[in-house]
């Protein structure tokens, strides 16, 4: 197999055994994360808010933060274009691009270009979400 | 004759070999703290299962009593407010961790052959996690729940060709009402946990089978 096609890299001689070396580190991370979660839940409890009222639209309603970039882009492009991109075009691309790895790495900078596009996409999504958070129209 | 529990299980289920394989498998040297976000996501999922089951003991998925049952959990139940807040905070942290995990895998190129299928299961797990968040957001039936779901369903409704069908399917009618709530509840506590667990099993199986990707 070519180096790009290696498998079972965790069965060789290198590295550390999972138990106890790696497991101790995992326990440390688990403890840290549980601590953070309990800290947040105890000191910053989630508010119950006001009961739902279909007749009273609250000022500045926004979706949850992880939908903000989609929400914001729909303000700038025609709605059906934005929705088609966000729900029908982008997800399939995200799912299938690794299957074309050998095709695009045939070019010298294929992977670099792909990863740069990815980085720009992420930055753009964060930027859009930030605009939505600030309430830009 | 001495026959311990481990011997009993070992004869029938080969547990010693399985335990040894688990304990002794090598973790490659290049694994550093950047590799922990997938595991943290799984930890968050387990916290969500535990707190979610406890919340389900008290939560009532009807428009008449959803909000008051959540108030009851927060105000009357011992540690109820911590339970609910843990569920709400962990949901957000879980989504952050999925995203960071995906970014790590993407920029390390760990999606490359032979691991394409694990990338596919991972992306689907991400969409399921976000759907978990969206469906759970409605359940307390407060102002934020109602209006976020309204905006969300309107966006789905504007989808080309299939929008109206999807919106009707989501809401169980023309507007947010009891069918919407029971639907979102069924998706949130029955369908997604089962489907996501199955995909997690596949995700983990492939990691064990293929090993951790070497650095680029």
Explain how this protein is built.
The complex is a heterodimer of chains A (137) and B (216). By secondary structure, chain A is an all-alpha fold. Chain A is 60% helix and 1% strand. The radius of gyration of chain A is 23 Å and the shape is flat. The N and C termini of chain A lie far apart (53 Å). The radius of gyration of chain B is 21 Å and the shape is globular. At the A-B interface, strand 1, helix 1, helix 2, helix 3 and helix 5 of A face helix 2, strand 1, helix 3, helix 4 and helix 5 of B. Strand 1 of chain A pairs antiparallel with strand 1 of chain B.
Give a quick precis of the structure.
The complex is a heterodimer of chains A (137) and B (216). Chain A is mostly helical.
SS field, number of helical segments of chain A:
5
Residue-averaged pLDDT of chain A: 89
Total strands of chain B = 1
Beta strands of chain A, count: 1
In terms of per-residue confidence, which ranges of chain B show pLDDT below 50 for 5 or more consecutive residues?
none
Spans of at least 5 consecutive residues with low confidence of chain A? 1-6
Rg of chain A to the nearest angstrom?
23 Å
DSSP strand content of chain B: under 5%
Order of helices and strands of chain B: HHEHHHHHHH
Helix content of chain A: 55-70%
The CATH architecture classification of chain B is Up-down Bundle
Instruction: Round the mean pLDDT of chain B to the nearest integer and report it.
Output: 95
Order of H and E elements of chain A:
EHHHHH
Level-1 CATH class name of chain B: Mainly Alpha
Could you tell me the strand content of chain A as a percent range? under 5%
Let me know the CATH homologous superfamily of chain B: Cytochrome Bc1 Complex, Chain C
List the domain count of chain B as a whole number: 1
End-to-end gap of chain A: 53 Å
Question: What is the structural class of chain B?
Answer: mainly alpha
Greatest chain-chain interface?
A: A-B, 73 and 78 residues
Number of discrete domains of chain A? 2
């Amino acid at each position: 197999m070519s180096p790009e096609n290696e498998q079972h890299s965790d069965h060789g001689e290198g590295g550390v055994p999972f138990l106890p070396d790696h497991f101790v580190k995992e326990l440390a991370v688990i403890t840290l994360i549980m601590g953070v979660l309990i800290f947040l839940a105890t000191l910053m409890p989630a508010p119950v808010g006001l009961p739902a009222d279909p007749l009273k639209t609250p000022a500045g309603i926004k979706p949850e933060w992880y939908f903000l970039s989609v929400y914001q882009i729909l303000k700038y492009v025609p709605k059906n274009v934005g929705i088609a991109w966000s729900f029908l075009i982008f997800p399939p691309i995200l799912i299938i691009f690794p299957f074309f790895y050998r095709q695009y790495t045939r070019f010298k900078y294929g992977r670099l270009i792909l990863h740069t596009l990815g980085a720009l996409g992420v930055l753009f999504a964060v930027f859009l979400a930030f605009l939505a958070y600030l309430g830009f129209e | 004759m001495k026959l311990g529990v481990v011997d009993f299980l070992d004869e029938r289920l080969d547990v010693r070999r399985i335990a040894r394989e688990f304990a002794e498998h090598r973790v490659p040297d290049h694994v550093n703290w950047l590799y922990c976000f997938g595991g943290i996501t799984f930890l968050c999922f387990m916290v969500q299962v535990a707190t979610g089951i406890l919340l389900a003991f008290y939560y009532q998925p009807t428009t008449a009593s959803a909000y008051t049952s959540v108030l009851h959990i927060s105000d009357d139940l011992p540690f109820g407010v911590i339970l609910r807040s843990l569920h709400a905070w962990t949901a957000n942290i879980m989504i952050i961790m999925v995203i960071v995990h995906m970014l790590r895998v993407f920029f390390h190129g760990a999606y490359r052959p032979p691991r394409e299928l694990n990338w596919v299961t991972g992306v689907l797990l991400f969409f399921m996690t976000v759907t978990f968040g969206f469906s759970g957001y409605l359940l307390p039936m407060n102002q934020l729940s109602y209006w976020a779901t309204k905006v969300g369903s309107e966006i789905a409704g504007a989808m080309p060709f299939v929008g109206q069908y999807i919106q009707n399917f989501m809401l169980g009618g023309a507007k947010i009402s009891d069918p919407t709530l029971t639907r979102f509840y069924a998706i949130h506590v029955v369908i997604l946990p089962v489907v996501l667990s199955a995909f997690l099993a596949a995700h983990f199986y492939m990691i064990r089978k293929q090993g951790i990707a070497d650095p680029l």
